[in-house]
Amino acid sequence: MKNYTDLSDIKDLQQLITEALELKKAKTALEIGKGKTLGMLFFNPSLRTRLSTEKAGRLLGMEVMVMNAGSDSWKLEFEDGAVMNSDKAEHIKEAAAVLSQYCDIIAVRAFPDLQDKEKDEAEIVLNSFKKYASVPVVNLESATGHPLQALTDAITISELKKKDRPKVVLSWAPHPRVLPQSVPNSFAEIMQRLEVDFVITNPQGYDLNPEITKDVLVIHNQEEALIDADFVYVKNWSSYQSYGQKLSEDRNWTFSAEKLLKTNNAKVMHCLPVRRNMVIADDVLDSDSSVVIKQAGNRTFAAQAVLKSILEETVKEVDLGKNA
Ligand code: AN0
Ligand code: CP
Question: What are phi and psi of 306, to 5 degrees?
């Protein structure tokens, strides 16, 4: 793998899932990353992504540097040709080139503004790093996707499924804030590449980007969608159609033990952080049906498999260069 900015960077999903589960079983540190540095830049807060990716880097023998780019470093300008007389002190052209001398892999988290659909879909932050960095770039959740989370979710379903083709339901839930579509986008994308029956349920007005959901069945009646589900992935997202808006905070969509009764004793997933009794009720999160902690545990192995694959590609190129 040369970069991991979106799910199309995964050529063989089954092989990557198998690799991640083997890394999980092995529990040993590897040497492939020795002498290499992972630099992580966070324009937004994080608990899991930050610590699991740092741990993954260390398990591969890498040095890891982390910076809160939103607050600790200079404010970055991304516009080409900008006259830099505002509060933005440094251009991405210099920042990415300089970081490429300190890091062998650069990983970036940059959420959408949720104001301007076209601007968010242009993935300006992530794509600028890709353009101006001379080392591989990893997406730690961008304006439209969270591919490390999606890989984790695919690993978790593969690990816990009891039948060859489980039914997986992605169910919208209420939240007091407006949140990105990144997590459900990537989840919907990766589910279409896995051996599952995949259904999405959300209120009217909350349909995800049809270019991502393609011909996935969308049911606006949650109870109907939940019938026979083996996995329910609960998540809030803001409206895509009425871009970035909160159209509903209807707690009838909160996932509770009562909803669980409609399913086939489903395992309940969420990427975390989760707002208790808004998104998922205590009676589910505190029950054996919840796998959210296990799921978060798998973040390390998803990140390890991805970083390892990037390192393998890089090492190969260095070797080829030496022999040429
Ligand atoms: C973010 C989101 O929904 O995209 C991050 C989730 C991993 N969640 C919040 O901002 C609460
Ligand atoms: N799931 C996830 O990405 O969590 P953080 O925002 O804490 O990194």
Answer: -70, -50
pTM of the complete model beyond 0.90 = yes
Q: What is the number of the ligand 1 atom nearest to the C-alpha of 273?
A: 11
Question: CB atoms < 10 A from the CB of 317, how many?
Answer: 11
* Pair of tokens at residue 311: 């390192």
Residue pLDDT, tens place only, 294-319: 999 999 999 999 999 999 998 666 65
Range list for CATH 3.40.50.1370 in the chain: 7-145+299-313, 147-296
In this structure, the residues whose C-beta lies within 6 A of any atom of ligand 2 are: 46-50, 141, 149, 271-273
* Closest ligand 2 atom number to CA of residue 296: 1
- Residue 274 has which token pair? 């989760």
What is each CA distance from 60 to 32, 68, 120, 156, in whole angstroms? Answer: 6, 23, 33, 21
251 CA distance to ligand 2 middle (Å): 23
Q: Kindly report the protein residue whose alpha carbon is nearest to atom 3 of ligand 2.
A: 49
Encode burial over 50-87: b for 16+ CB neighbours within 10 A, e otherwise: bebbbbbbbbbebebbbebbbeeeeebbbeeeeeeeee
Among 40, 42, 44, 49, residue to substitute to test ligand 2 (most atoms within 8 Å of Cβ): 49
Using one digit for the tens of pLDDT, what is the confidence trace for 175-188?
999 999 999 999 99
* Mutation probe of ligand 2 site: the residue of 299, 300, 306 with most atoms within 8 A of C-beta: 299
| pLDDT per residue as tens digits for the range 121-156 | 999 999 999 999 999 999 999 999 999 999 999 999
At position 75, the amino acid (one-letter code) is K
Ligand 1 neighbours, Cβ below 6 Å, are 141, 179-180, 182-183, 271, 273
At the topology level of CATH, where does 147-296 sit? Rossmann fold (3.40.50)
Nearest ligand 2 atom to alpha carbon 299: 1
Separation CA 106–CA 95 (nearest Å): 11
Nearest atom, ligand 1, residue 44 CA: 10
Query: What CATH number has the domain spanning 7-145+299-313?
Result: 3.40.50.1370
